[in-house]
Amino acid sequence: MKRIFIREVFWFILTIILSLIFSFLFMDFLDLSSSERNLKEIEKIFSVQIYIIGCIVSFISIYIIRTLVALVKMLLN
């Protein structure tokens, strides 16, 4: 039981780190970040909101892929 808990905590922390990285890539890929130095307040808020949405989508996507991989492994055994 302890081993399963430690593995899940590891995956949770790894998923958080990966989702932060993937959200930056998400913003860069869709050109949602501004290259200007002086942003208006609404643009700053929008950038943070898009970054948070990217983090959440990445987090959910990683867990869905992890679940699918575990399901395929289980079906192949």
Keywords:
77 residues, mainly alpha, 83% helix
Question: Can you walk through the features of this model?
Answer:
- This protein has 77 residues and is mainly α.
- Helices cover 83% and strands 0% of the residues.
- Helix 1 packs across helix 2 (41-76).
- The protein is elongated, with a radius of gyration of 17 Å.
- The model has no long low-confidence stretch (mean pLDDT 86).
What's the overall average pLDDT, rounded?
A: 86
Count of helical stretches: 2
Cα distance spanning the termini: 22 Å
Fraction of residues in β-strands: under 5%
The percent range for helix content is over 70%
A few lines on this structure:
Helices cover 83% and strands 0% of the residues.
Topology (SSEs and partners):
Layout: H1 2-29, H2 41-76
Helix pairs in contact: 1-2
